[in-house]
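Section 4.2 – Deliverable D4.2 (structural model, holo form)

The reporting period included a commitment to supply a predicted holo structure for the target in complex with fe (ii) ion. Inputs used:
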Amino acid sequence: MLIEHEALRHQWYPVAESTDLGIPGAETPIGVKLLGEDYVVWRGPDGRAVAAPDRCTHRESPLSIGTVADGCLTCPYHGWTFGSEGTCVLVPSSGEGKPVPPKAHLPTIEAREAYGLVWLCPGEPHGDIPTISYDENPEYRRINTGVDVWKTSATRMTDNFLDIAHFGWVHRGTFGRDELFEVPKIDLDELDDGWYGYAYEVEVGNDQGAQSSGQTGDTVHRRMTTGMHLPFSVRSTIHYETGLDHIILLCSTPIDDTTSYFTFVVWRNDDFSVPAEEIITFDRAIGAEDKFMLERVPGVLPLDQQATASVQADKASVEWRRRIAALVNT
Ligand code: FES
Ligand SMILES: [Fe+2]
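Output (structure tokens):
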């Protein structure tokens, strides 16, 4: 099983949006699943996200159906309450201020927030959350788009997001067109911010994408880069001739071997006049086309390169498979 590789436990994965944890005064715990394990996440007393196995230390109730008040999570079964770093601060049956058994504390895992997303790392972090420096640039706005569940493997998703040979086929309903069938020669190189991938130029269909591209023609020219960051992040940068940049972070998180969270985050240096919802409608429709295709491909993408045939157009995904295979086999 892919998710059983120990090395994957030491990487960061987005599992929810920061807003899913509620707003001050109305915080809520959430239940998420990562690499086959259930976790509860809530916002602790200092405002930071806290994550632990979704299992009360007393009688194993899911804690994600509990409540949060003042940053403390209360189990719905007997009211044991957990504060920062999972410390058990109250066992109501013993009375307030009474000592709690050492085993009452929750074994928390690493949790961080970045780009409007909650990221978890079940083990000791060896990797890092990918850098998107546009996030710190006030000329760019960030648009979060929600977290969806795809019935496919994170390996197939990452392979797909690094691949442009499917554009003309899978994306007929959005930007795909016959001219995209043939893929220009791909040269891999270091990109900015630690991303690794390739640059290319394309003329894509624009019929339904005017809000996204800011242009009205039938087609629109894009200078693009596609880059990878282990284990399953892909960044796509789109530069239009008008000076408009549209950056997309595509995240695939393994819930289990063949189910994954999908979320994407967009950064744009536009004039902020078009509502975010309208801008991401086009990207959502593109994602739905990928989802439709991938949910029809069974199983996990074999990391053994010999198991499937690849061509020049697959150069980036072949390199990503080489890297992820090296990571999980360490
Ligand atoms: S199971 Fe959580 S308090 Fe008893
Ligand atoms: Fe796609």
